[in-house]
Amino acid sequence: MRFVSYAVGNTASYGLLTSSGDVIDLPKAAGLLGSSLPEAGMIAFIAAGEPALSIARKIAASTDVAVATHKASDVTLLAPIPRPTKNVFCIGRNYKEHVAEGARAAGKELKLPEFPQFFTKPPTAVIGQDAPFYHDPAITQRLDYEVELAVIIGKAGRDIPADRAFEHIFGYTILNDVTGRDLQRRHDQWFKGKGLDRSCPLGPYILTSDEVANPDAMELSTTVNGEPRQHSNVGQMIFPIPKIIESLSAGLTLEPGDIIATGTPSGVGYAMEPPRLLKAGDVVVCSITGLGSLRTPIEAYVK
Ligand code: MG
Question: Distance from the CA of 48 to the center of ligand 1, in angstroms?
Fold first, then answer.
C-alpha cells in the first residue's frame, strides 16, 4: 500500500494513494466501513500498528469508499510525515563512490568510515512533493542535492539486532538531503549545512515494507533540469539498512514515524568537475524504484 499526507483546501489528513493517483481519506473511509482510524495524522496511524494496517487493507479492497475519495487533481500532497516528532536521522558517507568523489574533491586520501556517521535534519526542514526550496545566496553559495532512500520506523525499539531490523520498518520513501556545502565545511559539523529551512524534501508517498522484497535492488537516481546526475542502487551501501538500524538503536529508542535517511550515492554537484551547484530556476527530481519521483523546484528566497 502507498500512504500519503495531503491537504484539500485548508484541511489536512492522510490517506491511501490509489493506482490512478486518487486519495482515499483513511479516517473517513474507516468510518464508512464501521471501524475507526486515528484522526491525528500519519504518525498516529503508523503507531496504531498492525490493526490499523489491517483496516487500511480492507479500505483498499472496498468498493464502498467513493465518498471518502478525492480526485488526484483536488489534492495537494504534503510530506508523508509532515512534521516529524524528532529530527530526521541521517547517515553520511554511506556509498563508496560518494566517499571517493568527496575525497577527490577535497584532495584527500580515500578512507571509508568504519562506523555509520550520523547527523540529523530538524523537523522544520521537511517539505513535500513540488514544494520549493528557497535559495538565499547570502546564506549558502554552494547548494547541492542528495537522493536518499528513507526508512520509516513502524515498531518502536531499542538495541535492535540487525537480524530483527526489518520487523521495525513500516515502509520507505524518498528524501532529498539538500545541503549547503560551504556551511557544511565552515562549521566543521554537518548539522548547520544540512539543517536549513525546507532542506528535507520527503515523499511523495510511503510504500509499505511488505511490498519491497529486496531493498538492495532499488535504484536511486537524480536529475537536475532533466539532466541525469546520480544513479546507483541501494545494494551499494557501505552499511546496509539492518546495520544502520542496529547501530542507531544501540542505547537510543526508535519510535513509530521516525525517519532514517540512508545516505547518497555519487554524482552530487560539488564533486563534479567543474562543480555544478543549484540555483534559482533549477528543478531537482529524485527517483527510487517503486517509490516514484520527488520533485523540488529551487526558487529565489525573498525576505
Ligand atoms: Mg546525505
Answer: 30
CA of 23 from ligand 1 middle (Å) equals 30
Q: What does pLDDT average to over the chain?
A: 97
178 CA → ligand 1 middle, Å: 8
Distance 159 CA to ligand 1 centre (A): 24
Q: What is the pLDDT of residue 152?
A: 98
Amino acid 234: pLDDT = 97
The overall pTM is greater than 0.90: yes
| Chain segment 164-177, per-residue pLDDT in tens | 999 999 999 999 99
Distance 268 CA to ligand 1 centre (A): 10
Distance 97 CA to ligand 1 centre (A): 13
Residues 6+ apart with CB under 8 A from 288: 147, 149, 172, 174, 218, 219, 220, 221
Rounded to the nearest angstrom, the distance between the alpha carbon of 191 and the centre of ligand 1 is 11
Name the band, by pLDDT with cuts 50, 70 and 90, for residue 82. Answer: very high
CA–centroid distance, residue 302 to ligand 1 (Å): 26
